Structure formats: structure tokens, C-alpha cells
Amino acid sequence: MARRPRLFQRTRAQRGSAYLITLLALVVLTILALSLSLVTQTEMRIGANELSIQRVFYAADSGIAASTARALVGSDHSSMTFTVDDAITGPLGIEQRVDVSPFLPIGSGYCNLCSINQGSDFYQINHAVTAGATREGLDLGGNPVSLAAKTVTVMVEVQPWERQIVSLSLEEIAKVKF
Fold first, then answer.
1. This prediction's pTM
2. Cβ neighbours of residue 127 under 8 Å, at least 6 residues apart?
């Protein structure tokens, strides 16, 4: 009987190793793909939350602007509440509710830069106003749920301004957060 060369004996011992290496590579690539999918999904959720928080912040900012405009144009210093419908997700019932505190005068001083202040009743008056916005939607059961909330407090300096007596209740004054 003739002996086989050693070269053939080694190849028989290595049969199936390519299959195991390929299988191991596929397992590693599958784990890598799953982890990348999970990271992408998490980043998309973070982006959606950031967008929601930005929308609520700008809704609160619009409450500050509306309160300032009401005080400057109509001398209305009272609190107010309004809703802002979301143009993109409006059909889904998502809206921003904005609660604005009174436009509260907290301090006054002479208008240093105003040439109009020579013997007149015009002053520099500082006002405080707080706006809280809440983004609300519906859960699967149709119940309202808060998606995001933001509170913004601003001090607004107005000059020249005639000194006015503003009568507000203690409950309205308590809405301003310092």
C-alpha cells in the first residue's frame, strides 16, 4: 500500500474550517448591524425630543411677546392662556398650551436717556412676566398626556413709559416666578 504525502493529510484535518470562519464573521457582522440599528433608533428619538422641546420653548417665547404687546398697545397687564395648534401634526391632536402670568411692573426709575424726561412723568419701568408652555397630545386610549414643558421668565425694561397704577390680585402676582 502506497503512502499518501503529508500535504493531503493536513488538508483533511482542515476541512470545515472555512465554514466556521465564515459563520463567525456573519455572527460578528450581525451583532454590528444590530448595534448600529439600535444607535440610529436612539438618535432619532433624541432628535424628536429635541424638536418637541424647541417647539415648546418658542411657544413660551410667543407668550412673552403677546403679553408685552398687550401691555404696550392696550395697557392690559392681566394674565392669559392660549393654545397654538401644531401645523405639522395638527390632525393628530397635538397642541401647545401657553399660560402667561401678568405683565407685572416691579420697579421704576428715571429715564436717563430720554430728553423727554425734563419735568415730565415718563420713567423707565421694569416688568416681569413668566410664560409656561406645555405640549400636549393623546395617548393610545385617547387621554391627554404632556409631551414636553418649558417655563420662561423675562424681565422687560420699557422707556419712556408713563407711570401707571396696576391693580392685580395676589393670585395673579404669584404666577410670576422670580
1. 0.69
2. 68, 71, 103, 104, 105, 106, 155, 156, 157, 158
